[in-house]
Specification:
Elements: H1 2-25, E1 36-43, E2 46-55, E3 58-67, E4 70-78, E5 83-100, E6 104-125, E7 129-148, E8 157-177, E9 182-204, E10 207-231
Antiparallel strand pairs: 1-4, 1-10, 2-3, 2-10, 4-5, 5-6, 6-7, 7-8, 8-9, 9-10
Length: about 230
């Protein structure tokens, strides 16, 4: 019986300590928030585009997927402890150079940007843990260069393609604040793009290609990221 009472007392004491920590974690209602946060992150954005566009008078189905490790920078402006504004962007670059003994070679490079601009709502905002939810406009841009010099056949291929896409986007994350100056965070962004500007320029066997159009399209993006935030 004494052991049971002792165990019950320990559980009550432990529960009281946890409750006290939870209460202490909630920030005072009148506390002024940081003016803005600067966040640096590493993410893995995957973007899929599916559309049909007219190329030299022929309707073609266009599917393209980009997947890269990206470095990101974000600014988070805090108006109150519940509402803010974010500009979250990441940049990625990739390249491929191949040689074939025919003889020929090819080079393909890719550059892209993802950006999200919109308001942030703090679902939970404590002194240690914060849960931000952002809703806004997503912008996706990529540019790639394809070069295939066919030395033996005499048919060179050089194409430069650009895409600029727009649509609604959102992210939800978790921030762990160690002190008044720094925190780490993890979040996942999703977006659905519905407007697309597509351009294709270059040469195929000496024939010039120059196509540009604005269209309705469907594209989606998902980006898990982790990073470090600095408060000002």
């Amino acid at each position: 019986m004494k052991k049971l009472l002792l165990l019950l007392a320990v559980l009550i004491l432990a529960g009281g300590m946890v409750f006290a920590q939870d209460e202490g974690d909630a920030a005072p209602a009148g506390e002024k928030p940081e003016l803005f946060d600067l966040e640096v992150s590493a993410g893995f954005p995957v973007h899929w585009t599916n559309s049909e566009h007219d190329n030299t008078g022929v309707l073609r189905e266009d599917k393209s997927v980009t997947a890269n490790t990206a470095l990101g920078v974000a600014l988070l402006f805090n108006f109150t402890r519940k509402v803010g504004l974010t500009l979250d962007a990441d940049f990625f670059f990739g390249g491929k150079l191949a040689g074939i003994s025919s003889p020929s070679s090819d080079h393909n490079s890719l550059f892209g940007v993802n950006a999200l601009l919109g308001p942030v709502i703090y679902i939970y905002n404590g002194s240690f843990l914060r849960v931000p939810l952002a809703l806004g406009v997503h912008v996706y841009y990529f540019s790639d260069d394809l070069w295939i010099p066919q030395v033996s056949a005499g048919t060179d291929v050089w194409l430069k393609r650009r895409d600029l896409q727009f649509g609604p986007g959102a992210y939800i994350g978790v921030q762990f604040h160690f002190n008044n100056n720094i925190y780490i965070f993890s979040r996942t962004s999703v977006a659905v793009d519905v407007l697309r500007w597509h351009q294709e320029k270059g040469y195929i066997g000496g024939v010039e290609i120059d196509e540009s159009e604005f269209e309705l399209a469907f594209g989606w993006e998902i980006k898990p990221a982790i990073g470090l935030g600095i408060k000002f």
